[in-house]
Amino acid sequence: MTEVTLSPPREICTAEQGYVHSVETGGTLDGPGIRFVLFLNGCPLRCQYCHNPDTWLLRSGTLKKTTEILEEVKSYASFLKRAKGGLTISGGEPLMQPHFAEALFRGAKAMGLHTALDTSGALHERSPDSLFEAVDLVLLDLKAGDDETHRKVTRKPIQPTLDFAERLRKFDKPIWARFVLVPGLNDSEEQLRKVAKIISGWNRVERVEILPFHQMASYKYEELKVTYPLKGAAEATPRDVTLAWHIFSEEGVYNTRNAPKI
Ligand code: SF4
What we know:
Elements lengths: L16 E11 L7 E6 L21 E4 H17 L3 E5 L7 H13 L3 E6 L9 H5 L3 E5 L5 H8 L4 H10 L6 E7 L7 H12 L4 E8 L5 H7 L13 H13 L12
Helix pairs in contact: 1-2, 6-8
Iron/sulfur cluster binds next to loops.
């Protein structure tokens, strides 16, 4: 598979319009409360375990106007506020279209909604500070504990994600750290300790999630006629997740759904 460009053409990377994959109006996993989750197209990574390969290419999404999306968000705004939720922008990688994402976040903030950005941080350098100022929560995905394994998992270096976490300090935004556990890929004790050590050094981590790898997205690869690197690979079991939490907790990182904040 060829490398993807990190810079989409300027004329489509605007505050007025962007490429959208889909919308989920009752999300409960991607931030607090009930969420309007907007999945944008375009991603520079190629995670072996990706569950959304149909979001990889920017132009395979639907070109939509910011005003059109904000009208839709507005129709749910009072419900989202009552449900202590808000707008989450996910993907793909939302920072592939930073001006579009910022305009959407600003529109949601004007409605009084909580905002969450679901990102790997890989493209943060292309995003202005003003984008992150409009974000209330960052769902930050860490794919591995060192550069070698990160490149194996995603085909890209780990450093931009580490730099992004450092950059977030100045905004003092809360982070929910997320890690997808894949047997045989990033689940060795050494990897898990490295991942936990990185997360324990981040600022304002309010929640940590270990998400078990599953095979539910394999049909998407077949439909797209894209090679699935993890075809037939073992899924992570509840026991694998428990063992991973055990190692995390030895490094001072706890399951914050059930334990005090770290
Ligand atoms: S960052 Fe997310 S959307 Fe992009 S390849 Fe990885 S899992 Fe898929």
